[in-house]
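TA notes. Do not distribute before section.
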Amino acid sequence: MTVMPIDAGGRPFTVHDLEEMPDDGRRYELIDGELIVSPAPGWAHQEAALELAVRLRQACTPEYRVLAAPFAVRHDVFNELQPDVLVARYGDLTMKNLPAAPVLAVEVMSPSSRLKDANLKKAAYARLGTPHFWLVDPDSEAPTLTAWELDGDEYQQPTHVVGDEIFHPMRPFEVKFSPADLVAGLRP
């Protein structure tokens, strides 16, 4: 993942600039006018993200929708994030993007995205007012999931699960799985 400086025009990037980006398999996001470019993710990342999206979708209650990347969370013209998996209130969604904070944003870490996902993006979701933020690490020997809940304007770390430990949150709706479940498809 790369954070690119302001463009040659001497101004911050905007969502209008994103519309001009090439369709080259990379993910282009904005945080406070800075362009973040991520390479195409690997198998472990995609396996974990898809499995989590399926499990969340199966548990989802009618007032919410579960979407997988790429789908834009567009807060303003200087901020557009694309969480790997998001849960949104049905009434907040438009056909083009989510112009409000998601109820849950999930980032699945890749070797190139670890620091940005755990710091920069987590802070951006807190500023947006996203009540729940999960960070999945599928690449370690024992996959992990860390879940934060927003308390005021900062996340508090209520849960960290490893490998076969069961994660059983009740919000935004009840779901039950282990981090190992998310990457079970990597093994025959």
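Switch to the second chain here.
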Amino acid sequence: MLKRLYHWILSWADSRWGATALFILAFAESSFFPIPPDVLLIALCLGCTTKAFRYALICTAGSVLGALAGYAIGHFLWLTPSGEFTAVADFFFRIIPGFTHTEYDKISEVYNQYNFWVVFTAGFTPIPYKLITITAGVFSLNLPMFVLASVVSRGLRFFLFAWLIWRYGAPIKVFIDKYFNILAIAFTVLLIGSFVAVKYLIQ
């Protein structure tokens, strides 16, 4: 089913509604949809490299707005006044791959310590972003900080895709498909590590 969904998404790259579909996909993926918008973004950029950065901007805007929707779901619809999971929460546990009660508890444990970096890491790396946007709302993460982390991480990710395709064209797609997730994780680890190192050096 996911494979059919993947190819259906790619088919929008040949449509005049491709940019609109990209925005909707980016919005939905930040709160519930399983397929990341990168696949359509790459296809659209390959189809018209001169519009690559425009597509990246559309993708970033849709993703950040979707992140706010995910935040709202978590903040307003996730728990009852008594602290029990609502029917909405149970629904999302069923439809989001890998989102279990165990994962929810793990995420809750790291928010107080890492805040910005939790959102940034999920936004830039292959970690499902929707898991973070919803739980950020549940735990009432500082909203301006949440938006900033979303804009920075999603913008870096999508504009990097756009720049690579604008600069190198179709051949870079093989590289992106094969190595981007590994490089994204490595970049994030190094970035966070550098800030941790600075923190300890100035103490």
